[in-house]
């Protein structure tokens, strides 16, 4: 099975909750960029990044990690989830912009997940997990 790393940066806690939930469901290793900025990705076939959005921008720790690890990311499946307050069209436009900025095509957003992240409560997150589980 593909080994997965979930790498996140969170200021207010929602991305952290989502990251741990996704990692648990996928049996993935989870890394908080606040604690660790150097990560050896060699054993991971898949890397999923998670970030909050602030003033339309992703967390600087994610931007910096992605910029400094382009070589390591090459040849691996890379995904991105964004935790944000915006919803619907506005959130989709924001997500598309951040996806391009980071050079990560497979990007999704989860709106307003702060307090309610429990199994079954978060259709967006659960669908995302199901999609990842379903891809080789
Ligand atoms: C200063 C600030 C700016 C924000 N700007 C945006 C924004 O531009 N777009 C958006 O959708 N959400 C915005 N939000 C909401 C956060 O993206 C949302 O609370 C997210 O869950 C934060 O992730 P975190 O809890 O992992 O830090 C902002 C929140 C703060 C505190």
Give a structural overview.
The chain is of the alpha/beta class and 136 residues long. It has a single domain (4-134), classed as Rossmann fold (3-Layer(aba) Sandwich). The protein has five helices and six strands. Strands 1, 2, 3, 4, 5 and 6 form a six-stranded mixed beta sheet that branches. The N and C termini lie close together (8 Å). The chain binds flavin mononucleotide.
Beta-strand percentage range: 25-35%
CATH H-level superfamily: Flavodoxin domain
What is the C-level CATH assignment? Answer: Alpha Beta
Shape: globular
For the sheet with most strands, the description reads: 6 strands, mixed
Give the total of beta strands: 6
Domain module count:
1
- Please identify, by name, the CATH architecture: 3-Layer(aba) Sandwich
The CATH topology turns out to be Rossmann fold
